[in-house]
Design brief:
Distance between the termini: 31 Å
Structural class: alpha/beta
Mean pLDDT: 96
Strand content: 15-25%
Shape: globular
CATH architecture of one domain: Alpha-Beta Complex
CATH superfamily of one domain: Spore Coat Polysaccharide Biosynthesis Protein SpsA, Chain A
């Protein structure tokens, strides 16, 4: 089974200096690639000089996360793609158990490792933690991270279980499934494209799994900080595009309408908090969504699984019921 570890880079020479060594050191069974999104810094020169065994793929323009990977992976021959952020530190044998899972479970198409915080290694990291789910209205959350609450890793998620979505920070997928699904949706540019891809895989009957034996550490926000209004724009817009493409038709308009109302409430909350730029970001996200609605509605697959969500409203459980931790909301043994 051929594994390609592919690191997407854009002007990230400092991150490559810091994190590429661990990937090269602990990935002897894989071929390591840097897919460069038209960087203008010394990224390519650094890799060529210090890591001559790493293969480089040059995209002609900055195509974002989704388009950047779609273009780069056209040039890579492998059975498994390991898509790894440039701010990820991997650990010894991080590929072993994941490769074994792919070999032994033909219906498993996508896998995520345990993702811990590079800056605070006893805690889960925001982007993925111990595997992701969504609620009925498309709001994402993770085992180990619900909204802004991050759990300490006490072994409570040391299992290998099915999840709904795997984090794009460290994302393993069979190449044939990636091609079958036509990769990430380039309309997303960045953020939540991995959830959309997982949802499309889920609707086709594939399994998405979490593997706790593989451990990586993620800086998070190294390319776009959590508090950046652009991230707010992309998250809100792309979540709506994702719902448009993947919601079951039986309650499509009801859920989408309710989600638009919830977004409005979030915008008002930003306004009261004095976060005017984030309020504007939500308005822009909705305007962009309306412009893209028809084109994305046409992307809907012939079939959508009705039960895609873990709970009806994680917003209600977290903000109203004050349940802040995944393991207190759900039975983690299931």
């Amino acid at each position: 089974m051929k594994i390609a570890v592919v690191i997407l880079n854009w002007n990230g020479v400092k991150l490559l200096e810091q994190f590429l060594p661990s990937v090269v050191q602990f990935s002897p069974e894989a071929t390591v690639y840097v897919a460069d999104n038209a960087s203008t810094d010394d990224s390519i020169a650094f890799v060529n000089e210090h890591f001559p065994t790493v293969k480089i793929i040059k995209n002609e323009t900055n195509l974002g996360f989704a388009g950047g990977y779609n273009e780069a992976l056209k040039h890579i021959d492998a059975d498994i793609y390991a898509l790894v952020n440039s701010d990820i530190e991997v650990t010894e044998n991080w590929l072993k158990s994941i490769a074994e899972t792919f070999e032994n479970e033909p219906k498993t198409a996508i896998i995520q490792p345990k993702i811990l915080d590079y800056k605070n290694k006893n805690y889960f990291e925001y982007a993925g933690a111990a595997g992701g789910f969504i609620d009925k209205y498309g709001y994402p959350f993770c085992r180990g991270r619900v909204f802004e609450t991050l759990e300490k890793d006490n072994g409570q998620y040391d299992d290998n279980c099915e999840i709904f979505w795997a984090s794009g920070a460290c994302f393993f997928i069979r190449s044939r499934v990636y091609r079958e699904l036509k990769g990430f949706d380039a309309d997303f540019f960045a953020h939540q494209e991995e959830i959309d891809l997982c949802w499309r895989a889920f609707n086709k009957g594939y399994k998405i799994k979490y593997n706790s034996q593989s451990v990586v550490y993620h800086v998070g926000g190294a390319t776009l900080q959590q508090g950046n209004p652009k991230k707010t724009f992309l998250n809100f817009r792309n979540s709506l595009l994702m719902l448009t493409k993947n919601l079951p038709k039986e309650n499509f308009y009801t859920i989408l309408f309710n989600r638009l109302i919830l977004d409005g409430i979030a915008g008002i909350q930003f306004l009261f908090q004095g976060k005017f730029k984030h309020f504007i970001a939500i308005l822009k996200a909705h305007y962009s969504f309306y412009q893209l609605f028809t084109a994305n509605y046409k992307k809907r697959a012939p079939f959508q699984v009705k039960k895609y969500y873990k709970t009806k409203s994680i917003v209600y459980l977290y903000f109203i019921k004050k349940n802040k931790v995944f393991s207190t909301i759900f039975d983690i043994t299931k």
